[in-house]
Specification:
5-stranded mixed beta barrel, globular, UCP033535_lipo, OB fold (Dihydrolipoamide Acetyltransferase, E2P), 28% strand, 8 helices, alpha+beta, TM0957-like_sf
Length: 213
């Protein structure tokens, strides 16, 4: 090996050692202390709202389901301004927050997207009513019904979708898990929940409050 190569090798080793000694080691989960960028946590976002604001928000914004259906006369978009919530400000999917009392006349708790069939006195027969019980929930009605949060507050559609999933996880654990779904048939339930206008004639509610009598 020539003298020049030996000197070059020594310099390379010295530079490598310097780079190693000057490197900053950041523990997993603490990246924000170095980069200044906070890692998005959808569970924390949803839980904060759920614990601090959800009860007052949903109770104060819920409309009686029978009242809503009677006023709409079959056209839910006609009462959007009065009762509805759009997923993107004044556009997007239309959702409602509703409350009511019903009799459970069907239990589908063995499905991935499980639900209870409900019968409500005074409700128009043209509508079929379901209450989602998971573990898979269709749609994002709960998230989209909350006017205090906006898709504009999130970096992308992935984060926005993760918030909806986080709300569903909270509902599964706190609202639905304490209830024995094998023992609700023919019982009366009181509910507050959200639904998105989707299939004609089907109202599929995701509960944010559920009491079995």
């Amino acid at each position: 090996m020539t003298k020049a190569r030996i000197i070059g090798s020594v310099i390379a080793v010295v530079l490598l050692c310097y780079a190693f000694l000057s490197a900053t080691i950041v523990k997993e989960g603490q990246e924000a202390t170095l980069t200044g960028e906070v890692v998005f946590n959808p569970t924390a976002e949803a839980t904060k709202f759920w614990n601090e604001k959800s009860q007052e928000y949903f109770e104060s914004n819920a409309v009686d389901l029978v009242t809503l259906l009677n006023e709409s006369n079959g056209d839910l978009k006609s009462v959007a301004t009065k009762y509805g919530h759009y997923s993107m400000g004044d556009k997007g999917e239309l959702s409602f927050i509703v409350k009511g009392s019903a009799t459970v006349d069907l239990v589908k708790n063995k499905l991935r997207a499980g639900y209870l069939g409900l019968k409500v006195d005074g409700m128009d027969d043209k509508f079929k009513l379901r209450l989602q019980i998971g573990p898979v929930f269709k749609g994002s009605a709960v998230r989209d019904s909350i006017s205090l949060i906006s898709y504009k507050d999130y970096k992308n559609q992935i984060e926005w979708a993760q918030v909806s999933v986080a709300f569903h996880d909270l509902i599964s654990k706190q609202i639905l898990a304490p209830i024995d779904m094998n023992n609700v048939a023919n019982k009366t339930v009181e509910f507050i929940g959200c639904f998105t206008v989707a299939r004609q004639g089907l109202i599929q509610i995701t509960p944010v409050k559920l009491i079995v009598k």
